[in-house]
Amino acid sequence: MRSAIVVGAGTSGAIVARRLSDAGVAVTLIEAGGYDTNPAIHDPSRAGELWHSAEDWDFFTVPQPHAGGRRLHLPRGKVTGGSHALNAMIWVRGAASDYDRWDREGATGWSWADVEPVFAAIENDLLPVTDDYPLSPIQASIIEAAVQEGLPHNPNYNGGVLDGVSQEQVTMRDGRRVNTWTAYAQPIAEQLTILTGREVHSVIVHDGRAVGVRLGEGEETEEVRADEVILAAGAIGTPVILLRSGIGPADELDALGIPVVLDAPGVGRNLHDHLLSPVIFATGKKPVGPPQPGVSVTQSHLFWRSREGLPEPDTQPIHFSVPMWGELEPRGSDGFTLMAGLVTPYSRGSLRLTGPGLADPPAIDLAALEDQRDADALAASVRQCRRIGTRPALAEEWGATEVYPGPDVPDDAVEDWVRRTAITYHHQVGTCRMGSDAEAVVDPQLRVRGIDGLRVVDASVMPTVPTGNTNAPAAMIGERGARFVLAG
């Protein structure tokens, strides 16, 4: 019987495990975290509790010189379900032009015509994608205020046009989170060999072929063998495993004493991410109220072009029914947040190892806001969010007043605010870019170039980040990746 190891039980990995097992492959699914027993995972109102928890890898960037010298927190799921167990469940396919660009620039076979049917199949199969849920009163007013600001109301941003303000489509059923682990892998868990709480150190490569993985290190090392190895550990976890395996830039590996198996300069490069910056409001006429069980604290977002001539929206504010203080000093306990969002970043960063061991943290550099165009777009989004908060649906109905940035920060000083407050939108991609050129880490069938029997199937292969949340594209990559594995 054909056998495969899938590393990571997150969005892509859970799908790959299910599809391979259904096809008769003996699958070993390895997850560094534990099972999703934390009740906060399943209640959408409690997602904020999961940051810095046992289910969060709790990564931080190196200091970001263009973002106030701060180290940005990058939450990533360390649990069955992966980051889909921690996120806001928002389902965004992205723009057709995103995928046509992938195809045009070397990821052949990944055009919109290729991927759109896969999205449609996912949404009509195991994973519920819905906007059929009641809006919180503050969320309904935010949508109304955005329309008063001049944005169109878009009833289906996944229908081909992103622009406008919309109720979010989410993966939720009966007030509970549904992710690819619970929808795909968990129902057939008895068909899988599942190892939890086991961290993969590296891939075992013999004579140019991946034959298994090493769990743990030193005297605790255990080897698991299979015909094929599929890395689905995400845009941070996957390149880290490749680098510890000796697959990466030879000079960096040599410097750390890691034997070079394959000089692959693209591993860890091309890192980029969407960014957010908060605009927080208090309400003087009536309270928003605390989060309610089974109700997500974000239910709406918008897509908007910060300047004329753009082919697609470059901003995507996400709207929260709570004040998202983050590192800011709380000023009250009630309110709402219009979180300005940048979704077409030009800045590109990198990921490197600091040492060869499991305990050595990766040096993650997003190069956040390094490109001035990113700061300009995010600042424009903040200004728009400020304007929305002054519209009658919020200012008059709720008595909304801006708490942050606050009236002492004029619009022409918003760029400084953005650089001091920008945080991740949780959408890191690109560190194992697919393509047809010499720098591409994987080919368009997601095979690691230069190593047989090894594929990468997760968000790290995205050449450029799609316009919108990355969970849906990661699921699509999981489905297509499984097909590629089965095709041989």
UniProtKB/TrEMBL annotation:
<dbReference type="InterPro" id="IPR012132">
    <property type="entry name" value="GMC_OxRdtase"/>
</dbReference>
<dbReference type="InterPro" id="IPR000172">
    <property type="entry name" value="GMC_OxRdtase_N"/>
</dbReference>
<dbReference type="InterPro" id="IPR036188">
    <property type="entry name" value="FAD/NAD-bd_sf"/>
</dbReference>
<protein>
    <submittedName>
        <fullName>FAD-dependent oxidoreductase</fullName>
    </submittedName>
</protein>
<dbReference type="Pfam" id="PF05199">
    <property type="entry name" value="GMC_oxred_C"/>
</dbReference>
<dbReference type="Pfam" id="PF00732">
    <property type="entry name" value="GMC_oxred_N"/>
</dbReference>
<feature type="domain" description="Glucose-methanol-choline oxidoreductase N-terminal">
    <location>
        <begin position="234"/>
        <end position="248"/>
    </location>
</feature>
<keyword id="KW-0274">FAD</keyword>
<comment type="similarity">
    <text>Belongs to the GMC oxidoreductase family.</text>
</comment>
<dbReference type="InterPro" id="IPR007867">
    <property type="entry name" value="GMC_OxRtase_C"/>
</dbReference>
<keyword id="KW-0285">Flavoprotein</keyword>
